[in-house]
Amino acid sequence: MKFKYLLPLLFAAPAFAQPVTIKPDAAISQMVDEVSSKNIEATVRKLVSFKTRSTLSDTTSKTEGIGAARNWIKSEFEQYAKASGGRMHVEFDTFETPAGGRFDKPTILKNVLAILKGSDPNDKRIFMVSGHYDSRVNDVMDAKSYAPGAVDDASGTAVSMECARVLSKHSFPATIIFVTVAGEEQGLNGSGNLAKRAKAEGWMIDAMLNNDIVGNTYGFETGLKDNRSVRVFSDGVPSVLSQPGNDRALAALISNGGENDSPSRELARYIKEIGERYVQQLDVKMIYRRDRFLRGGDHTPFLQNGFAAVRFTEMNEDFNRQHQNVRKENGVDYGDVPDAADYDYIQKVARMNLSVLANLAMAPAQPQNVVVTTKGLTNKTTLKWETPVAGKKPAGYYVLMRETISPYWEKKFYFTGNTATVDYSKDNYLFAVQAVDAEGHESQMVYPKPER
């Protein structure tokens, strides 16, 4: 297939190539601009006003406890849905957790979902954004003490809700689900139930974006302040390959040099490219880990059930604010209070999430059955793929390339058709393929399997 042009990403293009600039979509830029730090702050402070959102706290009060919090979140989602023309509906995802471990009694948990249905009935893709609305103090079994949870994780909840507020006014071919989950602090219970439900019901979740602790810009101990960087954590080797029966697939991935090209890691690369395209003064830092040491997050159950999922967390954490009883001790302030959050920073994180969701939901689906030909000795590389069976038809495809030691895709070649040959050796570079529509919305990247 004829080579069209080469697009430099991080390094200069060769002299023979004509560089092409990808411009942001004006409609998405307008959506990004609508994300409001004032709305985000109001959401965080309202969640804090419920005193505690411990999963074990009161569910009957209208003003305090997790029951009041989830009812308020649902009512806010329902207000946003009024702007959707009937395309968004809101529901509780309700389940019971038995007594044991971090539950002192059988407990009803409720995730809150706002589902913005895609306009294309043949496009079954789902893109999900999430934050957890429960909170805690030092003792995870303490359901009475003041547990404001402003950054952990009213900030992530506010991101999901603000994305829902803005995007509910627009139509997308694919479905977007805005989630706030419960039970994170007790053991990822809400996300665990939702991930199992998604797998059992055959949801086609192509990307899950987990926002957890995205509201602080001050670093504990180091004193560093950074309101321009956010971390995105991603799995390298897919979690499902560690499960019984996947030995051959795992061995093939490692022998192919694909240990850094899982769907989740490709999603992280996509987020960095799109997020930095639309959000000024934001550096998306890819972290080659599932999560931080000694910590876990709601993306993990989705990874374990075979979905591409990542976690966003602020660059520098203040551990005096996390999982602490609110107090002042030896001149040091402890506790996750709303006055310590940086709402302009949360706005940037929300804008990044929104730009990624909008691009993905507008883009064609991923190319299918992507392979790199290995049946002969050659210093060129040939890739083949199939057109997505559902959703909008791609206008063309990008073949992406990077050196084997590079974390980011460095060049893009544009092709039409379903095969491409480039003058670079597959022994020396890594490749992927993504679909693109006429307006420039790109799908997620797909790492190829070798084919003899």
TrEMBL record:
GO molecular function: metalloexopeptidase activity
InterPro entries: FN3_sf, Ig-like_fold, M28_fam, Peptidase_M28
Biological process (GO), any one: proteolysis
Gene3D superfamilies: Immunoglobulins, Zn peptidases
Keywords: Hydrolase, Secreted
Keyword ATP-binding: no
GO cellular component: extracellular region
Localisation: Secreted
Highest taxon of the lineage: Bacteria
The Peptidase M28 domain, residue ranges: 111-323
The keyword Hydrolase belongs to this UniProt entry's keyword annotation: yes
PANTHER family, per the entry: METALLOPEPTIDASE M28 FAMILY MEMBER, PEPTIDASE M28 DOMAIN-CONTAINING PROTEIN
Protein name: M20/M25/M40 family metallo-hydrolase
